């Protein structure tokens, strides 16, 4: 068995009434989706994002799949996704039959590059999916100004990282036609596996409810709007169990505390590392104006792939689990299979080679944080001197 590092990359924590709520859910005798805790978690998220409706799902991947079903993709339809993202951002649309068109990212926010997007738009595009990487809004204004010329194209936010971040004081997740959230154990708010679909347009709610509930109008039946429920449409079983929703609600209720802890981690890393950046040749992540970060992660960019890999290895040897991130989807086997056509995404490749993420979780102690920054500075110094 491999030895555990002294400072793990991720460590989920209980922050409030998780166990009380899980017990309550179990005692309520309603373990499936659609119970009291599912409703309360959805209402909290709806109030925070100003959405027309929020559907709690088994994962962000499931929420993306549901949003892909809402598009009714036909022959030759395409969906534009960033190359630098998690597989699900593309997979969900590919399995509904869309051809994927991979768009490059811009180097400041690591979000979709509007200049590249403009060159990729044509009459086949049904939707454009954006990611607010690390919880920092992408160039929403640039992307909207491209989409203004294509009014039928839907903007979808894969907001797996960005819950409680903002762009121009508007919540991330409220900017697209719909948005998806993740409550996987690596995210800011967790329940093991979980997610949500945030519906910002009231016109989507009725159909989304049917697709969400195995293609039935069960929700209308529960509200007494129809006297029996039947099979109406396509769909799947997307609902989050009430037991997991109970855990999640306890986390969401502690959102201010959790976000403050995570902000403090970012501040610590920034203050400790900024003085070394020029001398040792790395770049710290930045939050451009008009944004507040959701504090999902902390990354740095090293000058090249070899140096990044050497720094990762040296940190691992000193007991600190840092890591790289996404490999560009356009260069992957499945990306090539599902691509409608080949596109060039050089910034995605460059960033994927150079990016390093530091350990990031709510309860990293000051001594953990010092261990991390010391290990990082020593590793970048050693790798600079050996070149
Ligand atoms: C941008 C992005 N989208 C989607 C997902 C998938 O989330 P989930 O594990 O909740 O399906 C991830 C996972 O990390 C992600 O980073």
UniProtKB/TrEMBL annotation:
InterPro entries: DegT/StrS_aminotransferase, PyrdxlP-dep_Trfase, PyrdxlP-dep_Trfase_major. SUPFAM superfamilies: PLP-dependent transferases. Signal peptide: none annotated. Keywords: Aminotransferase, Pyridoxal phosphate, Transferase. It comes from the Bacteria. Its cofactor is pyridoxal 5'-phosphate. Its EC number is 2.6.1.59. GO terms for molecular function: dTDP-4-amino-4,6-dideoxygalactose transaminase activity. It is an enzyme of class 2 (transferase). Belongs to the DegT/DnrJ/EryC1 family. This is dTDP-4-amino-4,6-dideoxygalactose transaminase. It comes from Nocardioides potassii.
């Amino acid at each position: 068995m491999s030895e555990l590092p002294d400072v793990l990359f991720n460590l989920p924590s209980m922050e409030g009434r998780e166990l009380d709520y899980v017990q309550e859910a179990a005692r309520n005798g309603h373990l499936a989706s659609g119970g009291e805790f599912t409703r309360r978690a959805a209402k909290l998220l709806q109030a925070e994002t100003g959405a027309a409706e929020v559907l709690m799902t088994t994962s962000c991947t499931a929420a993306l799949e549901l949003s892909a079903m809402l598009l009714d993709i036909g022959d030759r339809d395409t969906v534009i996704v960033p190359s630098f993202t998690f597989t699900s951002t593309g997979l969900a649309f590919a399995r509904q039959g869309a051809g994927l068109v991979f768009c490059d990212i811009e180097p400041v926010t690591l979000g979709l590059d509007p200049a590249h997007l403009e060159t990729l738009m044509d009459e086949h595009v049904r939707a454009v999916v954006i990611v607010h990487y690390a919880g920092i809004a992408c160039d929403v204004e640039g992307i909207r100004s491209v989409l203004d010329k294509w009014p039928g194209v839907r903007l979808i936010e894969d907001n797996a990282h960005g819950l409680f971040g903002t762009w121009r004081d508007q919540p991330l997740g409220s900017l697209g036609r719909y948005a998806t959230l993740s409550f996987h154990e690596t995210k800011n708010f967790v329940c093991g596996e979980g997610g949500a679909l945030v519906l910002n347009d009231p016109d989507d709610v009725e159909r989304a409810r049917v697709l969400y509930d195995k293609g039935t109008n069960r929700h209308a039946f529960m509200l007494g709007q129809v006297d029996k429920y039947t099979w109406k449409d396509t769909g799947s079983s997307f609902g989050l169990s009430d037991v997991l929703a109970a855990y999640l609600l306890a986390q969401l209720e502690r959102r201010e505390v959790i976000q403050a802890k995570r902000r403090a981690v970012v501040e610590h890393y920034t203050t400790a590392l900024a003085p070394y950046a020029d001398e040792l040749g790395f770049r710290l992540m930045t939050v451009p104006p008009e944004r507040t970060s959701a504090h999902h992660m902390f990354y740095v960019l090293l000058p090249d792939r070899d140096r990044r890999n050497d720094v990762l290895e040296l940190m691992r040897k000193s007991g600190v689990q840092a890591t790289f991130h996404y490999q560009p989807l356009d260069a992957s086997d499945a990306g090539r299979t599902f691509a409608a056509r080949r596109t060039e995404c050089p910034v995605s490749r460059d960033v994927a080679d150079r990016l390093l993420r530091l350990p990031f979780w709510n309860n990293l102690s000051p001594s953990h944080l010092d261990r991390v920054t010391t290990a990082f500075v020593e590793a970048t110094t050693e790798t600079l001197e050996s070149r």
